[in-house]
Design brief:
Layout (H helix, E strand, L loop, with lengths): L9 H13 L2 H8 L3 H15 L4 E4 L2 E4 L1 H28 L2 E7 L1 H8 L3 H7 L3 E7 L13 E6 L6 E15 L1 H6 L14 E3 L11 H7 L10 E3 L3 H9 L4 E6 L3 H6 L3 E2 L4 E12 L6 H15 L11 E3 L2
Parallel strand pairs: 3-4, 3-5, 7-8, 7-9
Antiparallel strand pairs: 1-2, 5-11, 6-9, 6-10, 6-11, 6-12
Amino acid sequence: MSGKSRLPPLQALAVFEAAARHLNFTAASLELGSSQPAVSQRINALENQLGTPLFERRHRGVVLTETGEQLYQIVRASLQGISRQIEKIQSKIQRDVLRIDTDMGFAGYWLLPRLDPLQRLIPNVDVQISTSPNEFSLRDSSAHLAISFGDGQVPGCRSHKLFPERVVPVCSPQFFLAHGRPESAESLLRLPLLNLPDPRPSRWLNWTEWFRRQRLDPGEGVTSLTFNAYTLVIQAAIKGQGVALGWRPLVDQFLSSGELVTCGPECRTERGYYLIQPIPESDSPLNLKVKEWLLREALSFYPREENTPTAVNFV
């Protein structure tokens, strides 16, 4: 350092900046978590090192000298620049976040069992799952990706069909045996049916539509129980409370485990679960990686003779 002027300690300059900004040593000490005498000592030491006063001490406070004002402008700008650069560095090392919006049934019965492989795929990303019974709305969502039930037509988004709507009546094995092995559509008319609330216009297959597809009229005499969440409908079916409409692949795990059995014909519609990507988000490497994983996972649901998921663009 020979031949070069020695800079004051950064801590001394930070104390000076606070004191000059407040024009009050006591206020500066409170901001810095120090004491008024300690701030005064730091300022005195800095003035001694520079060989010139930086403040004029007055009865009701201090004011900057001309030299003090010049130094304050330089130090303040420098500390602000350091602060901004530190924020940039910290933002680069913060973990990425992936938010997925979907409904409770899909989240609980399909996505949750696959969270471990998803997190292994993106180990340094915080995955946030948000659920809502409503249709996906780009205006009301901050999601990077959404998995939404419907026709896939969402303005401002790109859609990829994951699963068609395939629905089959299900009940517990005990209920199945206790009610004379109900295997025909007509035999279900005399049994308690488990429902979701029926929105208008209808967004998914309901019991009325299912019976009509079997060329039956359910009429007014059907016994039913209605729940406001699909997870409750399925739990009621597992507990033997009645027959539920089982959306595949959501109920596949319960069919495989034997907790539920099918008890009627399957229906399929043109609706289904779609992977929705807001177009500004679509090209991020993280989104593309997760999208490809979701599509691969969806392929296992399709029999070999069926068409695989395809992309549909909507602007």
